[in-house]
Write a structure and sequence with these properties.
The complex is a heterodimer of chains A (160) and B (790). Chain A folds into two domains: 76 residues, Beta-grasp domain (Ubiquitin-like (UB roll), Roll); 64 residues, [2Fe-2S]-binding domain (DNA polymerase, domain 1). A five-stranded mixed β-sheet of chain A has the order 2-1-5-3-4, sandwiched between helices. The N and C termini of chain A lie far apart (52 Å). Chain A is built from five helices and five strands. In chain A, helix 2 packs antiparallel against helix 5. In chain A, a hairpin with a 2-residue loop joins strand 3 and strand 4. Chain B contains 19 helices and 28 strands. Chain B is an alpha+beta fold and 790 residues long. In chain B, 28% of the residues lie in helices and 22% in strands. Chain B starts with 15 loop residues before the first helix and ends with a helix. Chain B has three domains: 196 residues, Aldehyde oxidase/xanthine dehydrogenase, a/b hammerhead (Aldehyde Oxidoreductase, domain 3, Alpha-Beta Complex), CATH 3.90.1170; 247 residues, Aldehyde oxidase/xanthine dehydrogenase, molybdopterin binding domain (Aldehyde Oxidoreductase, domain 4, 2-Layer Sandwich), CATH 3.30.365.10; 147 residues, Aldehyde oxidase/xanthine dehydrogenase, molybdopterin binding domain (Aldehyde Oxidoreductase, domain 4, 2-Layer Sandwich), CATH 3.30.365. Classes of the chains: A alpha+beta (160), B alpha+beta (790). The complex binds FE2/S2 (inorganic) cluster (FES) (2 copies). One FE2/S2 (inorganic) cluster (FES) sits at the interface of chains A and B.
């Protein structure tokens, strides 16, 4: 067991981990931040997406020890300071961009990173940018719509 | 102006707040003090005789608390099939015992034969690797036709030809159908495969079992679409414990699509381990285990024939289908290819004569059961493909052949030749709507534009119907169902006028917490915010059958309305007393009990308070309190229907298919929340496009699953699909349930695959490949390319 320290959602945290402990496992089991979900064992689904130093990372693909000292942000850290939904989260609710909610944390984290890189993406850019995140419920329609809305673009022409 | 509250309002979902902030509570998120972890040893061969399983080394591994094998569970009951099917000769289906863990033989790759419980997940998994299983590999039975040939190789030794049943529907129609075919001016024949799918809800299955030795109570947190059904199966059939000693809690569940209806052996295994160890025991499947052990869907091989006049009028239809049930009978495995498939083979058409034959076959593959649509996508795909093929053969327009044969809006109730009575519909209206929204008139121009770019453009249609809310219980009982198919609700009005509504339905993405509250709010004239929808915990909710088959609103919602009606009826009695009026003179509207024609009134809140503080109350004739339950058993199925169009472009150089647009015009009856209904259609269409273009479950000849991960199994991703155009303005309300609703959960997955394949075939034929009449799903680039070379 090795001690690891990092910043998660603005707070300094530390814990004892094994060399093989994944960041996803540390967040869920070590810190109780169960908003980060595990949907696969081949780094394909994106349900575990978090931000490490501002970039979207599939937390099942990195060891906890490898992000020692980093700034990590999870879905639990995405709301506004007063607890209200952020613009992006609100867009997901407005557009019905989630159903069972299992892919949702990963979708929100991936979308937030996408918008940080490209503040007014086209539909094709959103679809391409979310290609690493699987959703089995929504057929992606309302997720793409939500990201476009969050970017401030007019979505009224998009069909229901 | 659309309403912003109550029935029909596009209300945003209340459940979203917790999911968007990481506060959902799925089974894997729950930990109990002192819990241990289970891991399962699974067969690496598809078929094998278990000679011995040596667990000694595993038991001595660090942290290991216990190791149990199939033998330890041999005395427990089998996990039953929920529907008894009789073969054409009257003999009952063959029904091998499905044990908690395999013993004697392993029958598919991933078949679990032992469980290890240890202090940590890693220790449990390490110990699984140390189990020494002496298994003699037997030849794998993978192909259904070979399975039936009875080479002496059997999935279950007592079942000679691997045949579960040979079902005819309706057997009495058979002779008339044959006669019609013999005389028909034109017969179209098509052989097709409905590809095997892995449901892949994004949340893998999980179970956390707890046992209290002091009370002998078990609690199981699990990924279930129907906690009461799980409790019934586990307690009464498998473990032999009284139901009241088992609580099943299905907390937030990350999608199901059918795969979480069923009881799986892992659930009983962790319960037994929790009792043995007197500690909570948790198991969370990884995705590989999901691929290997979740019930798969579809997997039909069908020959379908359509007899028609030269003008395209349908005369008769017959099918012969082989349906793969896998190695064991999952709970709905026998109902899916029969009563959810054969009974739908008339589709939305007036075909006067239909005969369906289904042989269900055991193979050394994972069990196959209901997956979103369950039998109805298979029926719809067969019908809608042969309709297109017949149109091509006869030189008739694809829309015209459908219009000519659709059941007319004035023909309801309509009795089909396969035993259903459609209560209402207007199939021409949804077809017209689809034609308008898909801009069919502009297609030729778009096709020319594609051609100029060297691409082949095609348009495909499907007009489909399905049957939801399977019922009534007494009828399905005659047909072989071993369960009732009612649902239940309890409405508890609290003293200050807010409500808890306990429902037998389970929401795993459908948004019941929002929609059910809208319905109750509308009925009682109170705000949604004072209504809580409670689901998923057998210790709280009444005995209902859960959510699948698009039944929640039509069946559980109807029970809820009935319970609300009882609340109103009792409220009127209380109001009559308080207002010193006759009960018959009390009206209830907008949350107010009023003496008709006067301004004397009591609010809903005042009546509720009086029921719990019954000072001015008719205690001699009326019980205090305001809580009512209702059970609802539907009088018939509901029959959602619709018309879909898909437009594709095929790259002739690569065979790659791009979906350019998808249009769905549906009739779901009354719509309670359009936002949610649209979302259900989007999701269903997305899955249907996945089936049509991408997804395929492949076992090699040794029964090894080749498509066992997201690297090998192509799930639809955001850039595989377009924005969909969805409409539900052509509604004919269901005639026999109080909300007039039909169900919308499966429609998209039912109607879309044939529209996609029809579009691809259309594109290729327009592009000069007139010899192509069919391509099996998934219509992958290599299949399209090969078809073009033929
Ligand atoms: S759990 Fe990390 S990508 Fe699937
Ligand atoms: S909302 Fe269920 S997987 Fe995306």
């Amino acid at each position: 067991m090795t001690k690891v320290t990092m910043t998660v959602n603005g707070k300094t945290v530390s814990g004892e981990v094994e060399g093989r402990t994944l960041l996803s496992g540390f967040l869920r089991e070590g810190l109780g931040l169960t908003g980060t979900h595990i949907g696969c064992d081949t780094s394909q689904c994106g349900a575990c997406t978090v931000h490490v130093n501002g970039r979207a990372v599939k937390s099942c693909t990195v060891f906890a020890l490898d992000v020692a000292g980093a700034e990590v942000k999870t879905i639990e850290g995405m709301a506004n300071a007063d607890g209200s939904l952020s613009v992006l989260q609100q867009a997901f609710q407005d557009c019905h961009g989630l159903q069972c909610g299992f892919c949702t944390p990963g979708m929100v984290m991936a979308s937030a990173a996408l918008l940080a890189d490209n503040p007014t993406p086209s539909e094709a850019e959103v679809r391409h940018g979310l290609e690493g995140n699987l959703c089995r419920c929504t057929g992606y329609h309302n997720i793409v719509k939500a990201v476009l809305q969050a970017s401030g673009q007019d979505i009224t022409a998009i069909p229901a | 102006m659309p309403k912003d509250t109550g029935i029909g309002a596009p209300m945003k979902r209340r459940e979203d707040i917790r999911f968007l902030t990481g506060k959902g509570r799925y089974t894997a998120d729950i930990n109990l003090r002192g819990q241990a972890y289970a891991a399962f040893a699974r067969s690496e061969v598809a078929h094998g005789k278990i000679n011995a399983i040596d667990t000694r080394a595993a038991s001595e591994m660090p942290g290991v608390l216990c190791v149990m094998t199939g033998e330890d569970f041999a005395a427990m009951g089998g996990n039953p099939a929920g529907w008894l099917i009789n073969s054409r000769d009257g003999t009952p289906m063959r029904e091998p015992k499905r044990p908690v863990l395999a013993h004697g033989k392993v029958r598919h790759v991933g078949d679990a034969y032992a469980v290890v419980v240890a202090e940590t997940v890693e220790q449990a998994r390490d110990a699984v690797a140390a189990i020494e299983a002496d298994i003699t590999e037997l030849p794998a039975i993978v192909d259904m036709k070979a399975a039936l040939a009875d080479s002496g190789n059997r999935v279950h030794d007592e079942i000679p030809d691997n045949l579960c049943f040979d079902w005819g529907w309706i057997e009495d129609n058979r002779a008339a159908v044959e006669e019609a075919f013999a005389k028909a001016p034109h017969v179209t024949t098509l052989e097709l495969v409905n590809n095997r799918l892995v449901p892949n809800a994004m949340e893998p299955r999980a179970s956390l079992a707890d046992y209290n030795p002091g009370t002998e109570d078990y609690t199981l947190y699990t990924t279930s679409q129907n906690p009461h059904l799980h409790r019934l199966l586990i307690a009464a059939f498998v473990m032999g414990i009284p139901e009241h000693k088992l609580t099943v809690i299905a907390p937030d569940v990350g999608g199901g699509f059918g795969s979480k209806i069923y009881h799986y052996g892992e659930e009983a295994a962790v319960l037994a381990a929790a009792k043995a160890l007197k500690r909570p025991v948790k198991w969370v499947a990884d995705r590989t285990e999901s691929f290997l052990s979740d019930a798969h869907g579809r997997d039909h091989v069908t020959k379908i024939q359509l007899a028609c006049e030269k003008d395209g009028t349908f005369l008769a239809l017959r099918t012969e289908t082989l349906a793969n049930v896998g190695a064991y009978l999952s709970n709905f495995a026998t109902a899916t290819p029969t009563f959810l498939h054969g009974t739908l083979m008339a589709g939305p058409y007036k075909t006067p004569l239909v005969y369906v034959n289904v042989k269900a076959v055991f193979t050394n593959t994972a069990p196959v059961d209901a997956y979103r649509g369950a039998g109805r996508p298979e029926a719809t795909f067969s019908i809608e493909r042969i309709v297109d093929k017949a149109a091509d053969e006869l030189g008739i327009d694809k829309l015209e052949i459908r219009r000519k044969n659709l059941i007319g809006a004035d023909q309801y109730p309509y009795t089909t030749p396969v035993g259903l009575v459609y209560d209402t519909g207007n199939y021409a209206a949804t077809l017209d709507k689809m034609v308008e929204l898909a801009d069919v008139a502009g297609f030729e121009k778009r096709a020319a534009e594609s051609k100029a770019r060297g691409k082949l453009r095609g348009i495909g249609y499907s007009t489909w119907i399905e049957a939801c809310g399977i019922a009534p219980s007494n009828l399905v009982g005659v047909l072989g169902s071993r369960v009732g198919l009612f649902d239940a609700a309890t409405v508890r009005v609290n003293a200050t006028g807010n409500l808890s509504v306990m429902t037998g339905a389970h929401s795993h993405g459908q948004g019941h917490e929002t929609v059910f509250a809208q319905v109750v709010a509308e009925k009682l004239g109170i705000p949604e915010s004072s209504i809580e929808i409670v689901h998923g915990d057998t210790s709280k909710i009444p005995f209902g059958m859960g959510s699948y088959g698009s039944r929640s609103l039509a069946v559980a919602g109807s029970a809820m309305v009935k319970a609300v009606d009882k609340i109103i009826a009792k409220g009127k009695k209380i109001a009559a007393h308080m207002l010193e009026a006759a009960e018959d003179d009390i009206t209830f509207e907008n949350g107010k009990f009023q003496v008709a024609g006067t301004d004397k009134a009591k609010t809903f809140g005042e009546i509720a308070f009086s029921a719990y503080v019954p000072h001015n109350y008719p205690l001699e004739t009326l019980e205090p309190g305001l809580e009512e339950s209702a059970f609802y058993d539907p009088g018939n199925f509901t029959y959602p229907a619709g018309a879909y169009a898909c437009e594709v472009e095929v790259d002739p150089d690569t065979g790659r298919v791009e979906i350019l647009s998808f249009t769905a015009a549906d009739d779901f009856g009354n719509v309670m929340n359009p936002l949610i209904v649209q979302g259900q259609v989007h999701g269903g269409v997305g899955q249907g496009i996945g089936q049509a273009l991408l997804e395929n479950t492949t076992y090699d000849e040794n029964g090894q699953l080749l498509s066992g991960s997201f690297m090998d199994y192509a799930m639809p991703r955001a850039d595989d699909v377009p924005f969909y155009t969805v409409d539900h303005s052509c509604n004919t309300p269901c005639t026999h349930n109080p909300l007039g609703v039909k169900g919308c959960g499966e429609a998209g997955a039912i109607g879309s695959p044939p529209a996609v394949v029809n579009a691809v075939v259309d594109a290729l034929r327009r592009g000069g490949h007139t010899g192509i009449s069919h391509i099996d799903m998934p219509v992958s680039p290599s299949r399209v390319w090969q078809a073009m070379q033929a």
